[in-house]
Amino acid sequence: MREVVWFDEEEKWLDHFGDFRPQIRLGELARPKPVQYEARDGTPIRAYLTLLRGRDASGLPMILMPHGGPYVVRDSLTYDDEVQLLVNRDYAVLQPSY
Fold this sequence. Notes:
By secondary structure, the chain is mainly β. The chain has one helix at about 80-85; strands at about 1-10, 15-20, 30-40, 45-50, 60-65, 90-95.
């Protein structure tokens, strides 16, 4: 899934150390997609919507996951354990960037 590397600052070399969660098959993961919707005052809000692969968005219960803070100030299109868990339990997950 994601490589773990070792960097030796003194010797200036980088080496493959291992893989993070190698048992996960990327082709089977739900993929977030960028969407945009309007707030009540008309302000556009960008978000990521993640659905189970092959599942239509209609009729699903939705979980709204605003990002935390103060250090994580936005979500990204990367692997997220929690989102994958919820989507694979047949929830739609919306992560707004407010």
